[in-house]
Amino acid sequence: MADYSIAVAHLYGDLMNTYGDYGNIIALTYYAKQIGVDVDYQLVSLGDDFDADQYDFVLFGGGQDYEETIVAHDLQDKATEVKQYIENDGPLLAVCGGFQLLGHYMMMADGTKVDGIGVMDHYTTNMHDPKLTVRNNERLTGNIVIKNNETGEEYHGFENHQGRTFLGESERALGTIVSGNGNNGMDQTEGVIYRNVYGSYFHGPIFTRNGNLAKRVLTTALTRKYPSIDWQSKLNAIPTETF
Ligand code: GLN
Description:
Layout: E1 4-11, H1 23-34, E2 37-44, E3 57-60, H2 65-75, H3 79-87, E4 92-95, H4 97-102, E5 105-107, E6 113-115, E7 123-125, E8 140-147, E9 154-161, E10 164-166, E11 175-179, E12 189-190, E13 192-194, E14 197-200, H5 206-209, H6 211-225, H7 231-236
Parallel strand pairs: 1-2, 1-3, 3-4, 4-14
Antiparallel strand pairs: 5-6, 7-10, 8-9, 8-11, 11-12, 13-14
Helix pairs in contact: 1-6
The structure holds glutamine (GLN).
Keywords: Cell shape, Cell wall biogenesis/degradation, Glutamine amidotransferase, Hydrolase, Ligase, Peptidoglycan synthesis
Pathway: Cell wall biogenesis; peptidoglycan biosynthesis
GO molecular function: carbon-nitrogen ligase activity on lipid II; glutaminase activity
């Protein structure tokens, strides 16, 4: 056993795991292990309690509309604790459907409006929404590259979604589109950053293809739990994988 450990919750990992979003946890573990940190994994799914104080990192992956509606319903019971986790600066990665459900609502492909938990300020509308100024009846699918405006880092991934997400006042984008569609195919934004929450439409998974982001989030998680240690230097000393 290592001297240090982080507890990871995989929210609805049995239902929301498009294109192997679980790989984000494998990537995090890959880096953690090299600096002597154990990762304790816990699946938190339908009917389970989510205790905000118990976790150092949370992954909430993507899913099809059908699974997403089932999860949306159950998530209401966890909303208070999820909000507390986020407002306490807990690091969280939300991908695609998971990203959508942390916002106010999402519109399914068939037009059904599904309530999110509104712990973040974005909303997701439907590709057929007549209010969209750039409207096409297609899913936003393909390879995507974005640039993070604060760090200058470029992130690579693959997107496949019909939902069009629009960020709220308190949120900033994970990056600006270099190529691809992003949150809505209109405003050049991709993903979200709010406190220590990262949201994205990237599959691939994002942490395996963009080791710099994985290391950044791992640094945040470890510094929050063990503030007296210079985790950034430890992680800088090991190679960063990008694909
Ligand atoms: N069902 C959602 C959409 O198409 C989410 C898809 C996903 O998570 N890949 O917008």
